[in-house]
Design goal:
By secondary structure, the chain is α+β, with helices and mostly antiparallel strands. The protein has helices spanning 46-62, 76-84, and strands at 7-13, 16-24, 32-37, 66-72, 88-94, 99-106.
């Protein structure tokens, strides 16, 4: 964060912590989005609202045209969110504990309507 290549934002509803959203690797071309929503708050639109706002802010502040979203292959909710934001599959990756897919999400996709 000190170098300006990583940003983290708290997602709150009133005074309750709902989750965290992040913008990573800002200095590496297409920055990476990330989000964590606590289980009891999932499925209520907080993730979409937070990521759409983060994308809009970052696109304007840094002149970005697209973002990368890596997600575990089996994480259907995160994959659906990436697709709702206009993301398309562009690759795969493998970690020790899981396989994943990579979405590219345009900065001014469906969320700008």
């Amino acid at each position: 964060m000190e170098a300006g290549s990583e940003f983290y934002f708290v997602i709150r509803a009133a005074s309750e912590l709902i989750g965290l959203a992040g913008l990573h690797r800002l200095n590496e071309g297409q920055p990476e989005l990330g989000i964590w929503i606590k289980e009891t708050a999932q499925g209520q639109g907080y993730g979409y609202e937070a990521i759409a706002a983060l994308m809009e802010w970052a696109a304007h502040k840094f002149g970005l045209s697209a973002f990368i979203w890596p997600v575990a292959s089996e994480n259907a909710a995160s994959r659906a969110l990436a697709e709702k934001l206009g993301g398309t599959l562009v690759g795969t990756y493998h970690r020790t504990k899981y396989a994943g897919v990579i979405y590219c999400i345009p900065a001014f996709g469906e969320n700008s309507n």
